[in-house]
Amino acid sequence: MSEIGIGSLGSILPEIILIVGGLLILLLDMIQNSTTYQRESGRGFMAVAVLFLVVSLVGALLQMLSFGSPTSQGPHVAAYLVDIDPFTSFMKMTIYIGMTLVAIAGGSYMNRYSPRMGRGEFWSLFLFTSMAMGMVVSANNLILLFLSFEFLSISSYILAGYLRNNVRSSEAGLKYFLYGSVASSVMLYGMSLLYGVSGSLNLTEIAQAMAANTDFSIVALPAVLMLMVGLGFKMTLAPFFQWAPDTYDGAPTPVTAYLSTASKAAGFAVTARLLLIGLGAFSVEWVPVLSGLAILTMTVGNLMALRQNSVKRMLAYSSVAQAGYMLMGLVSVVSASQAELSQIDLASLGMNGLNGLLIYLFAYLFTNIGAFMVVMAIEEDSGSHDISAYRGLMQRSPGLALAMLIFLLSLTGIPLTGGFMGKFYVFGAAVQHQYFFLAAAGFINAGIAAGYYLRVVAAMLYEPAVDANGAEIAPKPLNMGMALQLTLAICVLVTLWIGIYPPNFIDLANDASRHLLALRF
Amino acid sequence: MAIDYLPLLILVIIAIGFGAIAVIGPSLLGPSRQNKQKLEPYESGMIPFADARRRFPIKYYMVAMLFLLFDIEVLFLYPWAVTLRELRWQAFAPMGFFLILLVFGFLYEWKKGALRWED
Amino acid sequence: MVPITWYLILAAFLFSCGLYAALARRNAIAVLIGVELMLNAVNINLIAFWRYGENVENLAGQMFSIFVIAIAAAEAAVGLALIISVYRNRKTVNLDELDVLQG
Fold this sequence. Notes:
Chain A is an all-alpha fold and 521 residues long. Chain A has 21 helices and two strands. The longest helix of chain A has 32 residues, at 167-198. Chain C is built from three helices and no strands. Chain C has helices spanning 4-24, 28-52, 60-90.
């Protein structure tokens, strides 16, 4: 065990910044008197929160730069509890960008609908949630991993049920809590089994102990299954996804936006680290489990999404289906034909599965946050999530309609969008590693998915605007705030940018993925 | 050794047996004449005035919740207190920070009126 | 000494009871109780594994269980708060009646 010193605090600097920011907001909230409480608009809190998120994002980027040029194998800072490497930095960057975008675009929405005197609390919880995500992707010790995983879950329960006078929001929060607490208890039981057989809580030491003694493999399968309950809950994989549509539907839209992107990305990062580093020796056990879950997830998600009339709920099910595609990337890390592919071979492959997962997560983050922000704009205008509220959007607000069009095309996986690059890499890795059934299931599902995405496109572009009774009305323009327009522009630009195969970004993802694979025992 | 626990097992058997005899015996031996006074719940001689299973105001849950949180956090003080002499400042400083955070949380709930009984 | 298997069986039994309560009961409070049972079962597991492990000097398992207790408390507090907010809106905590969101 290394000494605990002030020097090692540098490795969690972005998280410390976020904690300080959250506490500062609580303090600012606390020192007000009862008259200023009543007039509190929340804008000041939002400004502080965005400022601290940007500063911690810069901190995470600086950490990434300290690893040297993108193509070199950077140094690997491992304190006892956290692991700071290119993989961690990539995930932190993704997550903090996502949280910043949600804060900028969704801030005024949350400030408007939050319960009276609860505005400061929302922003401090938002920063704490971001902190927990940054922590969970870097943890390499089961205690810290579980602690930050629960921190993320518990603060997300509160945020999902934040509009406590709203029936839908409080129900969404409670459902999220009930599923989440059961799932994480099961995951914890799996962790205790890992501790029992290996005698250590450190992932690297667990891997060593597991590899040294092959008798332990009987525990590997139950442990993996139990871990996958908790992790699958966070990633919204098929048997554990029932909370997702309800919570995504009922939660405040900005919260939904981050739950379906940043929180999910954190779940995938933890799963990748746990399975590849901690249980890398037992890929024979977990690959069939994961590939089964992947096929089930995408099929169930897509079939349920087909019959939705609420666009928000449709996007919720689509988010479940997307998790299935992403999981394909994680399965494809391990080759099906040659079980004993050496580490060097794996790392030098252009499509090693893990880089596909990272590219997919990054592109999906911008696409889905953008899509949910469009949903939020429509909701504020018409108060409805129904597909009929999207009719005639092209005449009413061409910018918004085109942005939504690009997001939906990206979710479908049309070339020249970020979603295509993600799918290209993930499906490519699946084919390269001869998971043909998996790739085939993915292709069929992508075809089904196009159906419901294009329904929204058709409503936006070709159908006239209607009022609540279905009568045709003259198109009237939509009001949007500056912050929302800015965020949508960023999301559109990044979605298109990743679609044109940016070499620098791909290198970054390659580097991050290779690093984790090189650590594999 | 498991044999060392034999006295404990005997004690448990005697305790259960005594309880069983005390409950079953009177119902077999004694006469059973019931009236209203006998069937009422025993309230230390007071006359019962309401059903015991009534609902508590929600603020009890609130206070119980807050108590639970601060109560549990004290748990971390035990291992800390045991090792403080050995680790000295290295343990003192983080725990100080932790306690500051706790006090901060306490002040926050106080200021927000969560501890106010009448509203 | 009592063999470790006994502790593990006890923990597994407790865990199964908790899981049953969490999955089968329709009352939100009962689910919460089930979750607490499951977490405590894990604590028994952790402590047993620590005590019977090769390296008793390393207190990792004990520390883990202390953190689990703290997390269980935080989770219970947040869960109760959410249950209260649902109760205020709907006057029920029966999970079958929470049907605003479905489809």
